[in-house]
Amino acid sequence: MKLLTERDLVTLIESDTWMMDILRCVEQLQLPDSWVCAGFIRAKVWDYLHDYKERTPLGDIDVIYFDKHNTLEQLEKHYEQRLVQLLPNEPWSVKNQARMHVINDSEPYQSSIDGIAHFPEIPTAIGVRLTQGVLEIAAPYGIQQLLNGIVAPTPYFDEHTPLHNMYQQRLSAKQWRHNWPKLTFITSQ
Predict the structure, then answer these.
(1) Strand duo 35-37 + 127-131: pairing
(2) Which residues neighbour 143 within 8 Å (Cβ) at sequence distance 6 or greater?
(3) Residues of the chain whose pLDDT is less than 50?
(4) Which of 60, 66, 103, 140 has the most other CB atoms within 10 Å of its CB?
(5) Strand extents, DSSP E, 1-156
(6) Which helix (H) or strand (E) holds 182?
């Protein structure tokens, strides 16, 4: 099956028992405006595009949420521990997007999707969540670049921004060319 639409992406995720187990665990926490994002989805699609039978290992499973009333990092660690109790062998990483704007030196984010929009690469700027058995996709820049194996910076990391150097460093550090040689890399939009 060629991935062409959001429905195709949802079907791909729904057919992966491991991904659905992850999404069910996150749903159990009932975090406000929560999503599983970034490499969790990106790697699945890129593995599929490369016909890999084995999952490429993830450095972490990014879970984000938005709670401007409690931005303590200790609370994020508490949620990570709760997820470890549910699925102990997973590399959980939980971040409250209400405090993450500081890393990008930007204005405060207004929601988790606003936080996703500030991720460095377009195929990373995507989230998925399970809400009462229904998968939802959040993709501020759409899904076509992800589905077509194109890596490009989001507007916040474009070559005309101060953060572009960080985008270039990430491309080098992540070794995506090595893991997924069919990808196309774009330095600006």
Answers:
(1) antiparallel
(2) 6, 9, 126, 137
(3) none
(4) 66
(5) 35-37, 61-65, 92-96, 127-131, 134-138, 150-151
(6) none
**Dihedral sign for Cα atoms in the order 15, 89, 51, 64:** positive
Query: From CA 36, how far away is CA 163, in angstroms rounded?
Result: 24
Mention the CATH class of domain 6-147.
alpha beta
Pairwise CA distance, residues 76 & 114, whole Å = 19
Q: Cα separations (Å) of 24 from 14, 18, 100, 171?
A: 11, 10, 24, 31
Q: What is the pLDDT of residue 102?
A: 80
* Collapsed DSSP state (helix, strand, coil) of residue 24: helix
Report residue 177 as tokens.
Answer: 């060319």
Q: Can you give the pLDDT at residue 21? A: 97
pLDDT of the residue at 188 = 67
What per-residue confidence (pLDDT) applies to 1?
72
pLDDT in tens, 68-94: 999 999 999 999 999 999 999 999 999
Tell me the three-class secondary structure of 39-52, residue by residue.
Answer: HHHHHHHHHHHCCC
Nearest to 42 by CA among 154, 146, 137: 146
